[in-house]
């Protein structure tokens, strides 16, 4: 397990199959920790001042010439700004291609267990989890976008097919996100849609918040791609005019 830093602002834990949301201020670091090994954290990002601005997975991958997310990468909005940067990552690979589990998919794989009957042991899915959190801010189905799946690795085979790869699952692995603008974060801990487990995975996570340092000129995320320099410039202009 990652060592708790002395500048800890907040911490919490979530079992598998849960969901939550919060607004993180610019300069905050969100640390996600795979508590049990094999966790999946589905996550979406929005501008709390303009909910029409939200995470854009295609642009995030395209402008950084990557299929996976890891340290040095930035997560972009659909307006060319950077929601957050991955400043530390001991997992090494995070999916942002395969989307969410659905009610039908979870029921087909692991059986249907309703909240009314099973309470906290029900089999929640990622899509409905996002809808519950989105509704708290006046959003709905039309506002959901392609999401990140932290701690989940999906590789491509020679024939182009996608395969869920659980080889990197490690208890205590963590990823640190430094937020470059105020951001509304929705997340869930429901299974990845391609998880082949025979039982509904209830792998938990820990969440920690820290105060980040200002972005320096030699910052790895700023300099990993020329496009990221332009993204940070867009953020700078946004904050000047905000």
UniProtKB/TrEMBL annotation:
InterPro entries xref list: DUF1989, UAAP1
Domain DUF1989: 15-184
NCBIfam families per record: urea_degr_2
Protein name according to UniProt: Urea carboxylase
